[in-house]
Amino acid sequence: MRDADPRVVLGLHRSRHERRLLTGALDLGVTSIDTSTNYLGFHSHEVLARTAGDLLPNFRLSTKVGYFPALGRSEHSLDPQRLYGAVEQAARDLGREPDVVFLHNPEHSLHEGAAHNREALAQACAVLEKATSHGLCGAWGIASWNPSPLQSLIDTTTPRPSVFMARVGLLVGIRTLDAADAVTAAWGLNHSMVWGMSPFGGNVNAPVWDRIDPRVFLRGGAGLSQVQAAFRAAYELPKVGGVAVGTDNPAHLGDLIGALAGVVDERAIQEYRNLLRDRLRGQPA
Description:
This protein is an alpha/beta fold. The protein has ten helices and twelve strands.
């Protein structure tokens, strides 16, 4: 088994939750997995416990709450009682307390005025803080697909998460990149407390990866594939300490771990962000 590398998190979004994937991850030294209450049609936790319950103690396990089943669909809620109940249910279904529970996409329920949204976010954070203090999870965090609505709602009264997760990579727009940085700064988090997700925009086989060469963002990246270079660059867009990446193929996971040997050209990354910002400014209002 390789030495564990905490910078890679195996994400189970769209995963079939097969046991061989988890054993393959452990063999590669990947000891963090990330799921959610709503993954696998709201059955992720039960399937994990049934197919790999004996393996789960070997992982740092994170999950998310915020989505709930409702008449054949899902609905989002920041109701404190529902969130607390979801954390309790997650621990029961998994057969163990998660190491981290994320508040999942809180922006989906922030549609009122600023004062109402600020209070709703603070209460949701407070109930996850309470669940942590009651031993239902090891820590709590925020996972946000679009952090832009959050940056103006955080003040000194908003409970501080231990981890913040946001989209990363070359396909993320500058507004989202800047918003993620703003939220990170507002909560006083360092980069090791920030995780990335969806480094390939949801599809590693998308045509865009055949049209660009992300190796320009690395120093001496000729030994890496374009996919590997894109994955390595994702750790800098925005800067994060870990990235959750989904796959059902342990070999693909191994390729991505190999990408971590790449050295990022920070100047090229900054120039790229500047280009994104210049392009946004040039768009008509």
